[in-house]
Amino acid sequence: MGTRDPRVDAYIAKAPDFAKPILTTLRATVHAAIPEVEEGIKWGAPHFGYKGMLCGMAAFKEYAAMMFWKEKLIFGANVIARNRGLGRLTTLSDLPPKRVLAGYIKKAAALNDAGVKIERVRREPKPIRIPADLSSALKKNVKAQAAFKSFSPSHKREYIEWLTGAKTDDTRTRRLTQAIEWIAEGKSRNWKYERRA
């Protein structure tokens, strides 16, 4: 038998008035379709699990939504159309018929039963373009150059954005001098705000 979480009751109670019947219906449909479903809160909204992540629902200021973890496998090429259908629910009449909704839920559960995993595509980071003045200053300071090379892409970008965000040449020159000093010490741009262990 599945589980019900009192935090989901509290979430529905706090939802805008238009969303309460929508969320209640979605919840009941999930439990009716998959009696073994376990509910909880993930990312601040109700979530349903069955042998892994299954689906979730949320209420916003003007609409409610239901999301499926493996939506591309459930809806295929119709994901965009589905998002318009279950992504902006403002009244109960926006919901598909219960048998259709239950079919989506059962298909999601069948994917979990079969152990189907979602292939996550890792995006390649954008190449980092180092400004000429920073590159030149790094070449003059071997210690800073070595430290900068060892920085993560995000730390490199922080320095580049800080430098290129200067509104005047004087400010840019001051920032460049400060940056080289901090980089040579192995400090990230926002080292003052990092937690110390």
- What is the CA-atom radius of gyration, in angstroms? 25 Å
The secondary-structure class comes to: alpha+beta
Q: Round the mean pLDDT to the nearest integer and report it.
A: 88
The unreliable regions are none
Share in β-strands: 5-15%
> Regarding quaternary structure, how should these chains be classified?
single chain
The general outline is elongated
Number of separate helices: 9
The CATH architecture classification of the largest domain is Alpha-Beta Complex
Distance between the termini: 45 Å
Number of strands: 4
The major pleated sheet works out as: 4 strands, antiparallel
Please trace the helix and strand order, writing H or E for each element. Answer: HHEEEEHHHHHHH
Strand order of the largest sheet: 1-2-3-4
Helix content: 40-55%
The CATH class of the largest domain turns out to be: Alpha Beta
What is the fold named in CATH at topology level of the largest domain? Aspartate Aminotransferase, domain 1
Can you put this structure into words, describing what you see?
- This protein has 197 residues and is of the alpha+beta class.
- Helices cover 50% and strands 11% of the residues.
- It is built from nine helices and four strands; from the N terminus they run ααββββααααααα.
- It has helices spanning 6-14, 19-33, 71-75, 79-86, 98-113, 132-140, 142-150, 153-164, 169-184; strands spanning 38-42, 45-49, 53-59, 64-68.
- The protein has a four-stranded antiparallel sheet with strand order 1-2-3-4.
- Helix 2 (19-33) crosses helix 5, helix 7 (142-150) crosses helix 9 (169-184) and helix 8 packs antiparallel against helix 9 (169-184).
